[in-house]
Amino acid sequence: xxxxxxxxxxxxxxxxxxxxxxxxxxxxxxxxxxxxxxxxxxxxxxxxxxxxxxxxxxxxxxxxxxxxxxxxxxxxxxxxxxxxxxxxxxxxxxxxxxxxxxxxxxxxxxxxxxxxxxxxxxxxxxxxxxxxxxxxxxxxxxxxxxxxxxxxxxxxxxxxxxxxxxxxxxxxxxxxxxxxxxxxxxxxxxxxxxxxxxxxxxxxxxxxxxxxxxxxxxxxxxxxxxxxxxxxxxxxxxxxxxxxxxxxxxxxxxxxxxxxxxxxxxxxxxxxxxxxxxxxxxxxxxxxxxxxxxxxxxxxxxxxxxxxxxxxxxxxxxxxxxxxxxxxxxxxxxxxxxxxxxxxxxxxxxxxxxxxxxxxxxxxx
Amino acid sequence: xxxxxxxxxxxxxxxxxxxxxxxxxxxxxxxxxxxxxxxxxxxxxxxxxxxxxxxxxxxxxxxxxxxxxxxxxxxxxxxxxxxxxxxxxxxxxxxxxxxxxxxxxxxxxxxxxxxxxxxxxxxxxxxxxxxxxxxxxxxxxxxxxxxxxxxxxxxxxxxxxxxxxxxxxxxxxxxxxxxxxxxxxxxxxxxxxxxxxxxxxxxxxxxxxxxxxxxxxxxxxxxxxxxxxxxxxxxxxxxxxxxxxxxxxxxxxxxxxxxxxxxxxxxxxxxxxxxxxxxxxxx
Amino acid sequence: xxxxxxxxxxxxxxxxxxxxxxxxxxxxxxxxxxxxxxxxxxxxxxxxxxxxxxxxxxxxxxxxxxxxxxxxxxxxxxxxxxxxxxxxxxxxxxxxxxxxxxxxxxxxxxxxxxxxxxxxxxxxxxxxxxxxxxxxxxxxxxxxxxxxxxxxxxxxxxxxxxxxxxxxxxxxxxxxxxxxxxxxxxxxxxxxxxxxxxxxxxxxxxxxxxxxxxxxxxxxxxxxxxxxxxxxxxxxxxxxxxxxxxxxxxxxxxxxxxxxxxxxxxxxxxxxxxxxxxxxxxxxxxxxxxxxx
Lengths: 365, 283, 293
Prior knowledge:
Chain B is built from 15 helices and no strands. By secondary structure, chain B is mainly α. In chain B, helix 3 (55-65) packs across helix 14 and helix 4 (75-106) packs across helix 8. Chain C has helices at 12-38, 56-63, 65-97, 103-111, 118-129, 135-142, 153-181, 185-193, 198-209, 211-228, 230-236, 248-258, 262-288; strands spanning 41-43, 50-52. A two-stranded antiparallel ribbon of chain C has the order 1-2. Chain C is globular. The chains are: A alpha+beta, B mainly alpha, C mainly alpha. Chains in contact: A-B, B-C.
């Protein structure tokens, strides 16, 4: 078991395409780090560099204090679970799990003991003699996990391991992976584009975009205090509304002519400066019956989610979505009056997309 | 599909297909019949459409004695030659192609594409268009009338290399990566993963190349001068004497049947592999 | 398409390529370049010395009536074999593609002539059509047709065409059948719902979708007729009677071996190479681009 350290890691492909533009991450021993971002953001490349499947153009990767830049994947003491499982189709489940140990010259009875143990943990004992193609997606996923855990590696690497599963199984496996990682106490790095997976699994969440790290933090930090407009819209579902606004004064902004108090805004911004206001659909509160003193939205249509309803409309000319508990207001409503706590309004620089506000300190708790 | 059909349209495919089968089978049936009658009956044009009583005698004579008036080589010897040639070509092609395809797909090195093209272009150079210079080279290497002379010039094949390359490209990248993490190098990955996964491709290719080798004509015709090195396909030609009266047709037909049995058997027994190999080598 | 993950060894790939490259260079590139070299030279009467003569071999060739005759023979021969074998094969494949009983049995019964050597195919057909003892040959004569492929050039040509066609049907059949089976059933069903009757469905949906296969087979068949039929011709007619069944490839062989004209034979080889390269190039261009959907 070990900590993983990335220092100024860059990946430049032939033709000067920079896929990873200088990334620093520290993952503590036993930590679960999730790299999340849209496709092409460099998260998989980064993971593959840790695995040793891609060379490192510059910078340094260390596992357990040992710099591994020049070390073969097999000697990095890592195990990897692939998106398509990458099981050897011609080998039995048992042989798939045992293959890595055999290549390392592990004694036969030791291999058997470890394979049986992994099979017991993952509940795949009945399938050990079968071929991968005779298994369901979920079972194959478990075999891939088994291959990783028998090695007793220092680090688990997961490359979108759940994206080939159906929705229900995905939730189930997600929980199992987290439990397993906790029980074994092995450091894990997990790549996904699914923000729900990212939120639920990580204790360290890394949001990437365009080869750069946008934000590193606990899932709650990232959700409550997104560092950039990109992070704000990427994390959270339905995504955060971004509406144009201007600075109305010390501690207040104006959206569509309506002035709102903001708790978390840096002092000294010139009045009238253009900003982007971020409002989470779930933070907006519908005020039935109220009209005065509240921002009003024009409702276009309503989506029913069961427990909640999504009201789609416009505010200050920009599209906006409001999440509201079912039956609080009739779905036939044409206009909705809203309120939002000053602590829950996010303000971003219109040009750079960066958060304007205190970068630390008390956030509504 | 549910479509009302006249009985005529239900029967028509069977009628046409039966005619097709008849056209395909008839010449072979006649050859078989020819191999069961005596010389006189055939020479007089009296051969009936059903087999005669001389099968045992004809097959014995052809296989172990040889057609007396012509070369006199027993056909089992020719069949042995054909077997050696066909198997050497098939195995040789597969062996050198699979490793060269492995090199081209799983390594990056200077002149990789040049090597690939060098192999690829040979698709356009069938032995027929370079027959005499190739003959000269084989002669200079003292390979005339040898098995290696029969087989080696035919075992370099772009088709097999391309087929393996194509197959390797379908092996997911993740398998290589998983192998690397599992501690397998290029040799281990080839032996433990690539080779087992290629078994069907190898078998399919073997079927096609065995037939290709067995049926070679122009090349063995040129480079074998000793009767003992003749292949069966060449041997039958020497039995057809220009003056028709001298041709021992019953022995020629017996030889023809014997020449057809191995490759046809291979096709029928390994039909699935054969179809796969044929369709895929041409892609 | 390239692999994302490769091995890093430097020497190993060259070692793996060595056997194939060695054989390719020794038995392909060296003789092919020799053919080109020889085509610019003439051997003296004793076969001792050769002289560099520029394009004389080629100009001689294009002045000779025999060469044009061989070219014409090749064109006639390949057109007939291609059309006959592809037509028959398409008909049979369409019939076998219908979901009828015993479709696999028919397939088995139709594919095996692929395994018969061209030379053997020639011998079988000669045995059938031999004028004095062949079963069909005698019947034709009995019907009053003066059938004699050993003396009549046209008859010889017909016989060679029939044997070459017979041999090639199974190959074409297999590819047409594979092509037909790869057409999604939903397309046919959509056409049926759009009101197209079976015959119309064939010509408006199936046949156009089959065109990559058809085009591919067209090229393959022409190449087949050019080269692989050597055995058929040599077994049945040896290019005769006179030179009525002498194709370009057969002429390379007979001029070089029987005639001893190595320079002229080499020049013919070079032209054949150019033809094959042209055909292959066309095949790659069109099969890749135009005719695929």
